[in-house]
Design brief:
Shape: globular
Strand content: 5-15%
Strand order of the largest sheet: 1-2-3-4-5-7-11-12
Number of strands: 14
Structural class: alpha/beta
Bound molecules: 6-O-phosphono-beta-D-glucopyranose
Number of domains: 1
Family: Belongs to the glycosyl hydrolase 1 family.
InterPro entries: GH, GH_1_N_CS, Glyco_hydro_1, Glyco_hydro_1_AS
CATH architecture: Alpha-Beta Barrel
Keywords: Glycosidase, Hydrolase
Helix content: 25-40%
Protein name: Beta-glucosidase
GO molecular function: beta-glucosidase activity
CATH class: Alpha Beta
CATH topology: TIM Barrel
Number of helices: 16
Largest sheet: 8 strands, parallel, barrel
């Protein structure tokens, strides 16, 4: 058996988000969140990410009046809220060292603005974390994973208004105090770079409410407010739980040039730089100069609070986490090239890569490149907190799910991580996305499955919710047991 490069104590596990798995959308005092308004649009091609994500104020009004859960599939999720002990048992059986979950802000402060937190929400997560510890599973907690209170979107323009920073910090302080001693690893904003891709779920902004010519400025302002909130959330974390660590979280959308034409190389470099800008601010504590030049060129005016620059500088994150699903290709001749689009990004088709059933270009080497680049850039520990293959898994006549394609996907990606570690990169852990099947973020489909565990549920919310181990379950168990040796 080959030697493994994975360090002792490497954090193997899996990743989830509360709004995609918990369900119980209106139970025990929970308020309505932006995620509770996302719809499954069966009539739209699921790989058309723009159309799938688009939302109007009319859609929001309808969602607020509706009690429907089949159209708004995140409202029922996979019922993790009631079944989490059973699910944790399965994660424990696989040998998880860590599980990424998020805390829904709306369970703690239903509208985001309340004076007192909702005790039943606080108790739920306390129980969840305790049950995780009983099974030797460390929680990795995202504070903001596409699930802000809808009230803040409707009444405070989402993250555009500065008051939201204070509401968010109040939420953070509440959960830090309550979960001190239970949670060591935290993340502020999930995929903070996705604000332009889906502004409603990330920053609570609905495009038709704002003047077109101000739209870009509004998004930049909202994400600036998130940067400040992220820095202050890091400050308070260190004050309240000194032994805890905070990570930023970006989608690594690695872009290759179409060929060695210098102009193509320049375009790709600029696109990569744009993706890095979000981690640059949170790690280096300042805006890169190219963003400030872009604002000047476009006459975008961002309002900085008096102390903002100092705040960003003083409270950088401790580690860098990211999701990695695919790479993309850009070209100066993009309009005339064959395109591929996934829910995260689109671009020119890469002839060397296969695509998934949702048109995502599978590229394990790109993960190794991303790890090396991020480490060279920041010199901070890295955590791959999402990676995985969404596919339509089929049940065999004997009831088994033979997901060899998923095993192969993970074999290649784990080898890529090992190759980066061999290059001297410090990697803290690996939490494959959707370790149990859950509702897809972008398309609200159940049929887009990522898990090692199958959940009996379809796109319309029909099914028994029964859990079943896929072939990949035992495979991943053996990977963890051998610390990445036995692939
Ligand atoms: C990431 C998100 O963008 O991708 C997750 O952080 C999401 O919430 C994951 O589920 C996969 O995307 P999708 O749309 O296939 O669920």
């Amino acid at each position: 058996m080959p030697n493994t490069s994975f360090p002792k104590g490497f954090l193997w596990g899996g990743a989830t988000a509360a709004n995609q798995c918990e369900g119980a959308w209106n139970e025990n005092g929970k308020g309505i969140s932006v995620a509770d308004c996302s719809m499954y649009k069966s009539e739209i091609d699921p790989s058309d990410y723009k159309a799938q994500h688009s939302i109007t104020s009319q859609d929001i009004e309808e969602a607020m009046l509706s009690q429907d859960t089949s159209k708004y599939a995140k409202r029922h999720g996979i019922d993790f809220y009631h079944r989490y002990k059973e699910d944790l048992d399965l994660f424990q059986e696989m040998g998880f060292k860590i599980l990424r979950v998020s805390i829904q802000w709306t369970r703690i402060y239903p509208n985001g603005i309340e004076k007192e937190p909702n005790e039943s929400g606080l108790q739920y997560y306390e129980d969840l974390f305790q049950e995780m510890h009983k099974r030797d599973i460390e929680p990795l907690v995202t504070l903001h994973h596409y699930e802000m209170p809808l009230y803040l979107s409707n009444h405070y323009d989402g993250w555009y208004q500065r008051e939201v920073i204070e509401f968010f910090l109040k939420f953070c302080k509440t959960v830090y105090k309550r979960y001190k001693g239970l949670v060591k690893y935290w993340l502020t904003f999930n995929e903070i770079d996705s604000v332009f891709r889906h502004p409603f779920t990330t920053i609570g902004l609905v495009e038709d409410r704002y003047p077109k010519e101000k739209w870009e400025e509004i998004i930049y302002q909202a994400v600036h407010n998130q940067f400040v909130a992220s820095a202050l959330a890091t400050k308070y974390l260190h004050e309240i739980i000194p032994e805890a660590q905070m990570g930023c979280m970006i989608t690594r959308t690695l872009t290759y040039p179409e060929n060695c034409h210098p102009q193509n190389a320049l375009i790709a470099l600029k696109e990569n730089r744009k993706n890095f800008y979000y981690s640059d601010v949170q790690v280096r504590g300042e805006y890169p100069s190219h963003i400030k030049r872009e604002w000047e060129r476009k006459n975008i005016k961002i309002i900085f609070g008096k102390e903002d620059e100092n705040i960003l500088k003083e409270y950088p994150v401790d580690f860098v986490s990211f999701s990695y699903y695919m790479s993309r290709v850009s070209s100066m001749d993009e309009a005339n090239k064959e395109q591929v689009s996934g829910n995260l990004t689109s671009g020119v088709k890469n002839p060397y890569l296969e695509t998934t059933q949702w048109n995502w270009q599978v590229d394990p080497t790109g993960l190794c490149i991303s790890l090396i680049e991020l480490y060279d850039r920041y010199g901070k520990p890295l955590f791959i907190v999402e990676n995985g293959l969404g596919s339509r898994d089929m049940m065999e006549s004997d009831g088994s799910i033979q997901d060899d394609y998923r095993i192969q996907y993970y074999q290649e990606h784990i080898k890529a991580i090992e190759a980066a570690i061999e290059e001297g990169v410090e990697v803290m852990g690996y939490t494959p996305w959707g370790c149990i099947d859950m509702i897809s973020m972008s398309t609200c489909q159940m049929s887009k499955r990522y898990g090692f565990i199958y959940v009996d549920l379809d796109d319309n919310g029909n099914g028994s919710y029964e859990r079943k181990k896929k072939k990949s379950f035992n495979w991943y168990k053996q990977v963890i047991a051998s610390n990445g040796k036995d692939l």
